[in-house]
Amino acid sequence: MDRETFHACCSTARAPRRSYARFRAANFVDYIARRECSYVRFFSGYLVPNEPCVLASCFTAGWRCRARWVTAEGKPDFGRLLQDFDETPVPVANCAVKEYNSNPKQILPFKEFISYWKEYIQNGHSSTRGCLYLKDWHMPREFPALAVYSTPKFFCSDWLNEYWDASEGDDYRFVYMGPKGSWTPFHADVFRSYSWSANICGRKKWILYPPGQEEFLRDCHGNLAYDVTAPVLRDKKLYPRYEEAWQPLEIIQEAGEIIFIPSGWHHQVYNLEDTISINHNWLNGCNVDLVWQFLQQELSAVQREIGEWRSTMETWHEHCQVIMKSCTGIDYRQFASLLKVIAENRLSYLSSCAGGAAAGAEPPVPSETLAMLGPHHAAFDLQQVALTLELMLADDNFKRLGPASLGSQPESLLQRIRETLRSTI
Description:
alpha+beta, Jelly Rolls, 2 domains, four-stranded antiparallel sheet, 39% helix, globular
């Protein structure tokens, strides 16, 4: 990112996002067919405006998994997969069973899942065990030495996984494997993060609704639809606003292709064939504002739910944070911690670019990602962190947490960011 692009992107990121009306009119998404597409074009054309697209199979052509895990006929290579994973415990969902608003999971040895999958195919893609789907498997974290794929450049500014890699607690990089007919119910991604999903083999059908359209897909009790293709949605007594919803985008994703799902786009996904895919959830400076809005909305929902206890509990606000974290996976403190890690990494990188290491000391070695994206991208990230911190520091619920309990000293961090940006831009 150069200086001119930095200023353009900062201005765009502060502007209101578009209404997505063009998707209603055209019912198609852009297809990026050439690897020559620049990072800047993708950044300003899709990340900032929060719009989906599909990348051609040339972007995954060199991945080891596409050669190792796939037969010459384009099917999953069960023999090679068993060589790699064999007894590894993996999370498996039963698509035929509804538990709350998702599918129940169990942990199975990988070889047992493959045995089931083979039998499922032999029985005409059916089984008395239901339709099982290996999903949300942290394979990249468990088997880093395999190096079966590389993150495309467009998705490498990844604050979520950068934070979790630093904290060594978790990550949001997954492998999915499922037979024809396996599917994922209607949802939006964790924290309203972005996601990208690459088909290693097989084909998927995606049903997408732009942000806001999900409100028309709630039942009379306010619950989000589980399956947006179910005939019950046409019952006006149960789903009184269904007819107001736009027609969804429907995308067929072929083998090798990558789909980019922006923040807050609800979606439902079907495997049209026996399919293997790799998926990342991530956030960065382009959608951090949407993540913060989501957290505020989630906390408000918790506060409404237990509002009657507010006057009887001295630690009511703390309890709200605990409940929020149990429901969403993150609370205000952890979000502030994430911003601190991201900011510190970029402050250190910009200091090294300016020769800011102490006399006689070795300058810090920047990550490959920061070195590739460059100082102007780091400055953009810092500006977006600063804007988010300003919003958080003005939020009454955040103020109630108290600086002592945060440990991240957001006011001090914000001041350092401002000083760095003044000297950098």
